[in-house]
C-alpha cells in the first residue's frame, strides 16, 4: 500500500541562496567579518522547527524569547521553565492557530505578554530604508532580534504567509538571512533585502492589513517573577471577565462609601479559583544537585524576589488588605488559606516539586512529605536566603527536595499565634491579593461614585507611587491584563503598541 506524503521542497534559487551552499557559506563568512552576524549565534543556539504546519509565528517567537534568555515564569515540562509553542496561547487558542495560523498583531501581543520589549511596524507604516536600518541594528547586536512576516510567493516558494527570524545581513550584497522555522520544507536561506521588503509589503487576506516586521529585545530588567498571571489556565477567560468587566459594575453601587467598602467588595466577590490565576513562583531543586550551597544566580533571584515582597508589604494598600482579610468575622476571611504557615506551604511545594521531577506535571497527591526543615544562607549584603528542605516519599522511595523561598521581616495575622517559622515568611494570601489589586487596570475603579473614595483608591493603587522594582513587576502584570483584554476585544490588529499603564 502506498504512503502519501511530502519530503522537503527544493529551494528556488535564485532568488534565494541556500545557507549551506558554497555561495551561502561565503556570504556568511563575509558577513561575520563585517560584524553583521552578531545575533546569529544566539538564535542558532535555540533554532527550532515549528511543530505544526501553521505554527511558524509561535515557533519564531519562542525561538527569539529563548535566545534573549527571558524567563517565562511558567513551567514547560518537568521542573523546567522554557518557552515552547504550546505555551504561547494566551492571545489565541492553539487549536485555532493550528487550523488557521496567527496574525501579525497577535504575535506582537504574545511577545508583549511574554515580558519582552517589542517594536512592531507594518510595511505601510514604514519604508525599506527604515527596515534596512533595523536589520542592521539587530544583526550587529545579540540583544535584539527581528521577526519578519512575509509572503512566500515573492521568493517563488510554495505557501503564502509565513513568519521567521532574520539571522544575519550581508551589507555588500544587501541580502538578509532567513532562519526558516519550517525546516521540514526549506533550509535557512539568504534573500535580497529589497525582495524581502516586497514580500512583507503584502496584504494578509485574513485581516486585510499589511504584513511587517517586529523588533524584540529584553527589557533592561526582566520582571522579577515573584508573581505571575497564569494566563494559560482554563479559568482565565471567566476570571479576566470578572476582574475587568464585572468588578467596575459592582463598585458603582451606592453602598461603596469608603476604602473598606471598596476592598471588601472586591475581595468578597473574587472567584473561588482566583488563586490559580495569580501565583508566586517558588524555585525548586533536587537536594543532591547543589548540596548545601546556593549559586550566585540563585542568590540573585532570591534577593530580587525578597525585595519585591518587602516592597509589597510596605505599601499602604497591603495594610488595608491585611486588616480586612484577617479581621474577626471578616466576610473575606474564607478567601485566605486556612493554614498558610511556612511549614505547611513548604510541605505542599516539596510534594509538588517531587511530582515535577517524577514527570507528573506538578501533581502532589501521590506524595507525602515526611519532614521539612528551614535553613538560612547569606545571600547578598545583609540579606539571607531561606531554603526549605523536605523529604518526600511515594511508592518508589524517597526524594530530597529544596524550595528556595523569598523572605522578609514582616509579620502577619495569617500565622497562628506563637507558631515557629512565621518570620521570615513567604508570599501569603495577603501579599498575593495586594499584588493582584495593584495590577488591576486603572479603569477597574473608574465607576466608584464617591469622588473622595475614588481619589483615595487611585492613590493606593497608583504605580507611580511604587518603588522602581515593584513598579516594574506590577506594570508587567498590568500589561498582561490589558494585552489580553485587547485580544479578547479583537483590538490587537488596530494597535500594535504595548498598552498604556
TrEMBL record:
It comes from Nicotiana tabacum (Common tobacco). Keywords: Acyltransferase, Cadmium, Metal-binding, Transferase. Residues 1-221 form the Peptidase C83 domain. This is glutathione gamma-glutamylcysteinyltransferase. InterPro entries: Papain-like_cys_pep_sf (IPR038765), PCS-like (IPR040409), PCS_N (IPR007719), PCS_N_sf (IPR038156), Phytochelatin_synthase_C (IPR015407). The gene is LOC107826728. PROSITE patterns: PCS. PANTHER family: GLUTATHIONE GAMMA-GLUTAMYLCYSTEINYLTRANSFERASE (PTHR33447:SF2). It comes from the Eukaryota. SUPFAM superfamilies: Cysteine proteinases (SSF54001). Pfam families: Phytochelatin, Phytochelatin_C. Its EC number is 2.3.2.15. One of its GO terms (biological process) is phytochelatin biosynthetic process. One of its GO terms (molecular function) is metal ion binding. Signal peptide: none annotated.
Amino acid at each position: 500500500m502506498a504512503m502519501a506524503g511530502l519530503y522537503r521542497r527544493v529551494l528556488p534559487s535564485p532568488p534565494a541562496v541556500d545557507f549551506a551552499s558554497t555561495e551561502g557559506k561565503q556570504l556568511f563568512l563575509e558577513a561575520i567579518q563585517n560584524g553583521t552576524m552578531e545575533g546569529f549565534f544566539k538564535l542558532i543556539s535555540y533554532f527550532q522547527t515549528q511543530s505544526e504546519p501553521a505554527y511558524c509565528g509561535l515557533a519564531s517567537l519562542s525561538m527569539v524569547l529563548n535566545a534573549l534568555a527571558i524567563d517565562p515564569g511558567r513551567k514547560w515540562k518537568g521542573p523546567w521553565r522554557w518557552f515552547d509553542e504550546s505555551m504561547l496561547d494566551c492571545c489565541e487558542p492553539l487549536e485555532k492557530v493550528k487550523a488557521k495560523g496567527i496574525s501579525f498583531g497577535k504575535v506582537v501581543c504574545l511577545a508583549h505578554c511574554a515580558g519582552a520589549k517589542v517594536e512592531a511596524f507594518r510595511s505601510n507604516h514604514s519604508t525599506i530604508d527604515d527596515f534596512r536600518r533595523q536589520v542592521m541594528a539587530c544583526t550587529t547586536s545579540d540583544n535584539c532580534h527581528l521577526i519578519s512576516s512575509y509572503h512566500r510567493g515573492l521568493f517563488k516558494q510554495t505557501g503564502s504567509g509565513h513568519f521567521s527570524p532574520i539571522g544575519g545581513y550581508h551589507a555588500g550584497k544587501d541580502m538578509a538571512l532567513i532562519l526558516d522555522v519550517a525546516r521540514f520544507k526549506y533550509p535557512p536561506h539568504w534573500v535580497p533585502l529589497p525582495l524581502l521588503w516586497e514580500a512583507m509589503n503584502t496584504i494578509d487576506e485574513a485581516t486585510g492589513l499589511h504584513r511587517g516586521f517586529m523588533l524584540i529585545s529584553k527589557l533592561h530588567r526582566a520582571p522579577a517573577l515573584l508573581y505571575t498571571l497564569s494566563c494559560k489556565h482554563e479559568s482565565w477567560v471567566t476570571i479576566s471577565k470578572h476582574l475587568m468587566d464585572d468588578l467596575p459594575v459592582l463598585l458603582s453601587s451606592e453602598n461603596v462609601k469608603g476604602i473598606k467598602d471598596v476592598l471588601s467588595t472586591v475581595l468578597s466577590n473574587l472567584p473561588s479559583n482566583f488563586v490559580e490565576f495569580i501565583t508566586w513562583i517558588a524555585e525548586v531543586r533536587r537536594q543532591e544537585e547543589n548540596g548545601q550551597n546556593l549559586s550566585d544566580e540563585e542568590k540573585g533571584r532570591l534577593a530580587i524576589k525578597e525585595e519585591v515582597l518587602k516592597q509589597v508589604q510596605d505599601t499602604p494598600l497591603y495594610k488595608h488588605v491585611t486588616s480586612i482579610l484577617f479581621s474577626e468575622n471578616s466576610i473575606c476571611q474564607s478567601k485566605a488559606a486556612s493554614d498558610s504557615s511556612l511549614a505547611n506551604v513548604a510541605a505542599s511545594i516539596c510534594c509538588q516539586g517531587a511530582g515535577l521531577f517524577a514527570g507528573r506535571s506538578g501533581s502532589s497527591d501521590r506524595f507525602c512529605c515526611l519532614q521539612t526543615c528551614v535553613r538560612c544562607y547569606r545571600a547578598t549584603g545583609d540579606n539571607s536566603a531561606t531554603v526549605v528542605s523536605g523529604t518526600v516519599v511515594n511508592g518508589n522511595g524517597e526524594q530530597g527536595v529544596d524550595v528556595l523561598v523569598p523572605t522578609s521581616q514582616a509579620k502577619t495575622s495569617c500565622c497562628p499565634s506563637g507558631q515557629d517559622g512565621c518570620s521570615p515568611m513567604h508570599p501569603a494570601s495577603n501579599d498575593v491579593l495586594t499584588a493582584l489589586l495593584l495590577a488591576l487596570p486603572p479603569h477597574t475603579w473608574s465607576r466608584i461614585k464617591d469622588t473622595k473614595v475614588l481619589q483615595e483608591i487611585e492613590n493606593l493603587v497608583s504605580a507611580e507611587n511604587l518603588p522602581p522594582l515593584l513598579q516594574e513587576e506590577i506594570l508587567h502584570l498590568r500589561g498582561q491584563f490589558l494585552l489580553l483584554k485587547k485580544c479578547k476585544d479583537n483590538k490587537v490588529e488596530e494597535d500594535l503598541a504595548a498598552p498604556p499603564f
